Amino acid sequence: MKRALLLLVALLFLTGARDPILVPEISQHEIQVRQGFRGADLLLFGAILTPEGTRAGRDYDIVVVLKGPTRSIVLREKQRIAGIWVNAASAEFRSAPTFFAVASSKPIKTIVDDKTAAIYELGLPWLQLSPIGSYNPKDQRRYSAGLVDLMQRDGLYKQDTRGVTVSEQVLYQARIALPSSVQTGTYTAETFAINQGRVVASAISRVEVKKQGFERLIAVFAETSGFLYGLLAVAISVAMGVLAGRLFALI
């Protein structure tokens, strides 16, 4: 019994030693959103090494998944009634990512099966989006596809099947662009090393997107004094309306 246990431990140790480790890095860990912010380009790079810190020596496919903070999103369907487009059915997603981007060294379907891709959410077709409430599978797929399509058109969901380059079986890099409309918060960049259809290593880095300057003051004021912020917004709107009316009266 003792000998069998020792053999099992040795086997696990040797198996683990064959799997690589990822050493990830990001070009900037903090993005400051100021007036006139036009987005940012992130360079996600790193190395594939053995546990001893040497070259892994195998061909690995790399997938990088950059995910933004989650929030509740309500999706409404439009229906044309008597020539007028009105809101019809709707669905609410409790925790949909505000940003989701995937870059890979090859098309996902060529490196993993659908089950593995769904477990790790390695692409838009496998992004786990389930609306709140009871829906039949067909409606769930329709609402999820509608949300993904809407976010893609806004540049907030994207996928690049040739977005990762691997050099000398050691170094990898990918570029992901953040649009100017990104939400503030913590973004997670998870990198996966895949060999023969199996995820053999993963690593996570984080990026903070923060508002700075006048925009940050407004955001903090809105969060800490919501009632006063609302009154101020109404007062400014009324004042702008009165001013606009007087200007038009003078023309």
Structure description:
- The protein is of the alpha+beta class and 251 residues long.
- The protein has 5 helices and 12 strands.
- The strands form 3 sheets. The protein has a 6-stranded mixed sheet.
- β5 and β6 form a beta hairpin.
- The chain starts with a helix and ends with a helix.
Keywords:
single chain; 251 residues; alpha+beta; Immunoglobulin-like; 2 domains; four-stranded antiparallel sheet; 5 helices; 12 strands; 31% helix; 39% strand; globular
Alpha plus pi helix count: 5
Provide the residue-averaged pLDDT: 81
What is the architecture of the largest domain at the second tier of CATH? Sandwich
Shape: globular
CATH classification class of the largest domain:
Mainly Beta
Q: Report the strand count.
A: 12
Gyration radius (Cα, Å) is 24 Å
Tell me the helix content: 25-40%
Low-confidence stretches: 1-17
Major sheet description: 6 strands, mixed
Number of domains: 2
Distance between the termini: 98 Å
What is the N-to-C succession of helices and strands?
A: HEEEEEEEHHEEEEEHH
Assess the beta-strand content as a share of residues: 35-45%
What is the CATH topology classification name of the largest domain? Immunoglobulin-like
Look at the structure and name the CATH superfamily of the largest domain: Macroglobulin (MG2) domain
**Class inferred from helices and paired strands:** alpha+beta
Biggest sheet strand order reads 2-12-11-4-7-8
